[in-house]
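Re: the request from the purification team.
They wanted to know what the chain is likely to look like in 3D before they choose a buffer screen. I agreed to run a prediction and write the result into the notebook, where they can find it.
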Amino acid sequence: MKKSALWSFMLLLVMALFLAACNNDSSKTEKENEKDTSGDTTTTTDKPSTEGGIVTYGTDVAPEGVYDPAYSGSIVDSYIQNFTMEGIYDVNDDLEYVPNLASWEISEDKLTYTFTFQKGVKWHNGEELTADDWVFALETLAHPDYAGPRYNYVEGIKGAKAKKEGKADKIEGIEVVDPYTVKITFEQVKINNLENLWSNPMPKKHYEGICC
C-alpha cells in the first residue's frame, strides 16, 4: 500500500509540473504578443483610387453572357452586372428604398412620382446619364417586340399596356420635363408602385435603333 501511494504521489507531482510548464509557456507567448503589438508602429493610409484595373469574379457555373438587366435571365449574369450597373434607387439595411441616381417626390393623389436625376453621372463611355436614358429603358420594356422577362416592371405605368399591345407609340404616363426630370404616372395607387418600377437606365445613344 505504501509503494502504491508513493507512485500515485509521484504521478500527481509530474502532472502538476507539466501543467505549470504549459501555463508558463502560454503566459510567455501572450506577453510576447502584447510586446509585439505595442511596438508595432505601422499605420494604414488610404490610397487614392485609380482608374482601370481588373476585377476577377469566380462563379460555380458559366454565365450566359447577357449583361443588360433588361434581357438577362441568369442569376450569374446579374451578379456580374452589379459591378457595372446601378439603379435609380438603393435599398438600405432597414429595407427602405433610398435615392441613388435619382431622388423623387410623390404627388398628393399618390399617382405621380417626379424623379430628379443627379447631374454629372456618366456612363462608362464618358457620356452623361440623363432622364432620357431611363425613359428609353421603360419604353423598351413596353415595346410590342420586347421578348425579355421584365415587362412586369412597367405594366403599372399609365398607358404601358396600350403600347405593349401596339395601340400607342409611347407610354402615356411618362412625361420628360427636362434632361434631368421625368414624371411617372401610375394606373392605380399602390403602396409598392416604386418597388415595382424598373430602376435601371439604358444608354439611349448606344441602343437606339436596336430592338427589342
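For the purification team: The radius of gyration is 31 Å.
Please add any questions underneath this entry.
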